[in-house]
Amino acid sequence: MKSAQVRANAAPSRNIPGRRGRVWKQMAKRLDLYVMLLLPVAWYLIFHYGPMYGLQIAFKNFNPAKGIIGSSWVGFDHFVRFFESFYFWRLLWNTLSINLFSLLIAFPISILLALIVNEIRSKTFSKVLQNITFIPHFISVVVIVGILNVFLSPTTGPINSFIEALGGSPIRFLEEAGWFKTIFIGSNIWQNMGWQSIIYIAALSGVNPQLYEAAKMDGASRLRRVWHISLPGIVPVIVIMLILDIGHFMDIGFEKILLMQNNLNIESSDVISTFVYTTGILKGEYSYTAAIGLFNSVINLILLLLVNRFARKVSETSLW
Amino acid sequence: MPKQASISRSSDEKIFDAVIYTIATLIIVIVLYPLIFVVSASFSDPAKVLSGEVWLLPKNITFEAYTNILHNGKIWTGYTNTIIYTVVGTVVNIVMTVLAAYPLSRPDLPGRKVLMVLITLTMFFGGGLIPSYLLVKNLGLLDTMWALIIPGAIATYNLIVMRTYFQTSIPWELQEAAHIDGCSNWRLLLNIILPLSKPILAVMVLFYAVGHWNSYFNSLIYIRNEAKYPLQLVLREILLISQSDAVDANVGLENKVLLAESIKYAVIMISSLPILIMYPFVQRHFVKGVMIGSIKG
Questions:
Q1: Which is it for strands A71-73 and A60-63: parallel, antiparallel or unpaired?
Q2: Which residue of B has its CA nearest to A290?
Q3: B232 reaches A (C-beta below 8 A)
Q4: What is the pLDDT of residues B49-65, one digit of tens each?
Q5: Which of A240, A276, A317, B269 has the fewest CB atoms in 10 Å of its CB?
Q6: By the 8 A CB rule, do A296 and A251 touch?
Q7: pLDDT at A230
Q8: Contact A146 B239 (CB under 8 A)
């Protein structure tokens, strides 16, 4: 602070009175900080706000030769075409159901895992459990889907060998629409439950131990202590994680779905984001798929706002 | 009376412990089994794998699959490319993230709140795939390494984590003292802040590096030239696309099919090896990173 005054006095003071003048002075003094921000801010403008500006092609007939600005406006034509297409309901249902089932099943499982880790008394065993469940998180999606392919293979996979040993007939897990969602969500749980539980484990270690002691004195069983002390203790974290998850509700797992997709399971693996990829990037229908992408983002944003608002009302925890 | 209660309570506890330990063991088995199967299959005689005889331990141990991979030029090109993309990409990531996180962590910087709002906003809304693709295309980055590096130069979540670290783990008084001594902000950042931030820098390097190593989608849309394919795209071809060929293959090609199948397991191993090797050493840092991220509240 002192140096600030000294420097301010040393500099030829322009003597601008009032708050605005002070802000300008403060900014001028920290010019080098703004220089640091130059590249990142430019990057955000170009690579985040640039595409938002480019979104206007959703309301235009984008022609690469004419550019974004030169292309002609068509209003909501692309949206209408999408809503009236025969695949609209299929895409919407698949997108919503895969994410909803993930949320209903995978989300609680990581909380459950954290509660289990917290209840294990042996420090070594609990560390072993944690470290092993983290491993799959670091395996790439390509390898995960590769493992699924060999593991569930109808001819060589151990699962089908086991089914055959029991007298059943092999199941083509990856080529049946009926199995797609189960396998997608199941393998997601396998891959991510450990990683997602970290944050709850951290929160659980912050719960006041005196609460457990008091409950024990009152004769509460372990299960009751988990239910009445551990769980309520991490509700704020659960709410935040839930909101963050909803923030990506519509695009979760898209890269993996794309890898698992084939002509035989397309009935239940066709989601909005994979459709945008195959029709937009591969077939070049940029304006149409930009519109579909926008529809996807808007639904996602609405969901996020609703959940955040609901959370603030019910639990007094929210993102903002 | 109290004695009886304590007895029933302790047997209650025992049952509870038994249930907890059983579930925990089951989870460990479920997580590890597919991994062990892949490891065993990669070292086994392909014929044994195909006939479904390998289910836990390797049968007729052989390194044939691995020696085959050594002669596969595509895999090595992919490996080299991925190493280059990962190293260059991570350097760019770290420089850009620090340049953004440090000034925004300063409580005395006018305008930082507005900037943070504009940055956080991008986590929840964006232009989406098509406009981003067109942007990269218009910038002439298609089919270059930079298409994989520049559009992802900053992960907003990591930026927030790093900013939180600067704010909470480095005493503000220290920075003020440095200012009194006439230290410029650049020198402050390079000589004081960064040396004190090694733990978070390690975490960031790991997060970004694993991200680069494992990513396939950006190269799928931006890279056409096979000589520039990263490892994950080569893997995708070997693991997922060649499969349909294998199914159609006729009897005369049986040996080739056998080999193609057995290579899959070895390829999975080879590509995941760097991460699995470093995993035990860095595991603690990863956890720390998530924890720091959770403090922001």
A1: antiparallel
A2: B130
A3: yes
A4: 877 778 888 888 888 88
A5: A317
A6: yes
A7: 93
A8: yes
Q: Do B214 and A136 touch (CB under 8 A)?
A: no
Q: Which of B9, B20, B264 is closest, CB to CB, to A116?
A: B20
Q: Hey, is the C-beta of B24 within 8 angstroms of any chain A C-beta?
A: yes
Which of B242, B25, B219 lies closest to A141 in space, CA to CA?
A: B219
The residue length of chain B stands at: 297
Could you give the count of Cα atoms lying within 13 Å of A46 in the half-sphere of its Cβ?
15
Average pLDDT over residues A100-112: 94
Judging contacts by C-beta atoms under 8 Å, the chain B residues touching residue A195 are 290
Asked if B5 reaches chain A (Cβ–Cβ under 8 Å), the answer is: yes
Rg (CA), chain B: 26
- Token pair 């403060």 is found at A26
Mean pLDDT estimate for chain A: 88
- Give me the residues of B, 144-173, that contact A with CB < 8 A: 150-151, 153-154
Structure token digits, residue A225: 């202590």
pLDDT at B294: 58
Selected residue of A115, A133, A150, A318 to mutate for chain B interface (largest B Cβ count, 10 A) = A150
> How many residues belong to chain A?
320
B217 with A259: CB under 8 angstroms? Answer: no
- What pLDDT score was predicted for residue B254? 63
- Verify whether the Cβ–Cβ distance A258 to B217 is below 8 Å: yes
Cα separation, A51 vs B128, in Å, equals: 7
Closest CA to B271 of A137, A153, A138, A152: A138
Q: Does B63 touch chain A (CB under 8 A)?
A: no
Please state, in angstroms and as integers, the Cα–Cα distance from residue B193 to each residue in A27, A282, B175, B196, B204, following that order: 21, 46, 8, 5, 15
- Beta bridge partners, B64, equal none
Report the alpha-carbon distance of residue B297 to residue B127 in Å, rounded.
27
CA distance B111 to chain A (A): 9
Listed in sequence order, the residues at least 6 apart from A57 whose beta carbon sits closer than 8 Å to its beta carbon are A68, A71, A286, A287, A290, B130, B131, B134
| A148-207 pLDDT, tens digit each | 988 898 887 888 888 988 888 889 998 889 999 999 999 999 999 998 998 899 889 888
Out of B50, B232, B297, closest to residue A140 by CB: B232
Model confidence at A3: pLDDT above 50: no
> What whole-number distance in Å separates Cα of residue A10 and Cα of residue A296?
56
CB-CB contact of B129 with B67 (8 Å): no
Identify residue B19 by its one-letter amino acid code.
V
